[in-house]
Each structure stands twice: as structure tokens, then as C-alpha cells.
Specification:
With 171 residues, this protein is α/β, with parallel strands linked by helices. 37% of the residues lie in helices and 30% in strands. It has helices spanning 2-10, 23-36, 73-83, 103-106, 109-113, 122-131, 149-158; strands spanning 16-20, 41-45, 58-64, 84-97, 120-121, 134-142, 161-169. The strands form two sheets. Strands 3, 4, 5, 6 and 7 form a five-stranded mixed β-sheet that branches. It has a two-stranded parallel ribbon with strand order 1-2. The longest helix has 14 residues, at 23-36. The relative contact order is 0.15.
């Protein structure tokens, strides 16, 4: 969905590339693209830790709740910095925590599926962004409520929350 919303912003002269790690999801997204007439959108199979693109090939990267699913967040941010052009932006909506999660939370598959198990401590998350060569420009907490009691308990205990961040590559 984010790719299609981005396509509305770039118009007919821009281009949007979506990435997914499963061929089934890429196939589904391409079918939706064709059905909806979004000629300026394309989808490729890839992993956020190893993007299949040349250096400095994008003006903007959007990630909506995906980075917390990767245990290699530093690598994700380094890859984003690599493929961004100078002055390019990284726009993130993600789940983070105020304090480091207990091992039992990180090892719980239900909490990973709820996007809680991979939530990094917010200051470490931001440090990883900046260590990749991107400068944080803005950030805010988003209203978000988890449904399951287990997820709500983890939120209360560890300060798990949704945030939006904007970072820019030096230009």
C-alpha cells in the first residue's frame, strides 16, 4: 500500500520501487499494480539487509513497520544510506521500546509477529541510524494500540511504542 501512496505523490514522471522478501508477495503486488494502472511502480524481490540496487539510486526510502522485523538493524540502515542519493531521505514508521527487551520477549514468536519482539531500544535505534551516515531530522510518537493482552503487557512493561522518524543523507 505504501508504494501505491508514494506513486500518487511522485506522479507520472516519478518512479516507485517496492521490495519484498517473498516471491509470492512480489507477484501479488505486481498484479495489484497492473490491475490499478500504476505504471510508475515496480516491485522486486530482495532483503532490506542486502538491497538489490546500485549505490546512490534513490531520493527517498519509506519503511513502514519492517525494520523492527530485522535482527540486523545496523546493516539495514547502512544499506539505506548506501542506496540513497546525497540529500536523500529515509522516512520510517516503526516499533521501538524505551528499554531493552527481556530475552523472553525477544524469543517469543507471537511477539515477533506482533512487531514487538524485534523492537530496539529507541536510543540504540537512533544511534544506528546516525552511525550509518544519516542525520535524524525529526521524530514523533504515533498513537498505536496493540490488540493482544500479551502485546499490551509488553508495551506497558518496556515502553513499546510506534514512532515516525525522518533522516537525511548528507548532500
Amino acid at each position: 500500500m505504501d508504494s501505491f501512496f508514494a506513486a500518487l505523490r511522485v506522479g507520472d514522471t516519478g518512479h516507485v520501487t517496492g521490495v519484498d522478501m517473498t516471491p509470492e508477495q512480489v507477484e501479488k503486488a505486481n498484479a495489484l499494480r497492473l490491475e490499478s494502472g500504476f505504471d510508475q511502480v515496480g516491485f522486486v524481490e530482495g532483503r532490506i539487509e542486502d538491497l538489490p540496487f546500485e549505490d546512490a539510486s534513490f531520493d527517498c526510502i519509506i519503511s513502514n513497520g519492517v525494520i523492527n522485523l530485522s535482527p540486523a538493524k545496523k546493516t539495514v540502515f547502512a544499506e539505506a544510506a548506501r542506496v540513497l542519493r546525497p540529500g536523500g531521505r529515509l522516512a520510517i514508521a516503526d516499533i521501538v521500546a524505551d528499554v531493552e527487551l527481556a530475552r523472553a520477549i525477544v524469543a517469543d514468536t507471537d511477539l515477533w509477529a506482533s512487531c514487538i519482539g524485534g523492537a530496539a531500544q529507541v536510543n540504540k535505534y537512533q544511534q544506528a541510524i546516525e552511525a550509518s551516515g544519516l542525520a535524524l531530522e525529526s521524530g514523533r510518537e504515533n498513537p498505536y494500540r496493540f490488540i493482544s493482552e500479551q502485546a499490551q503487557n509488553a508495551c506497558s512493561r518496556y515502553g513499546v511504542k510506534s514512532v515516525s522518524l525522518m533522516a537525511r543523507k548528507a548532500g
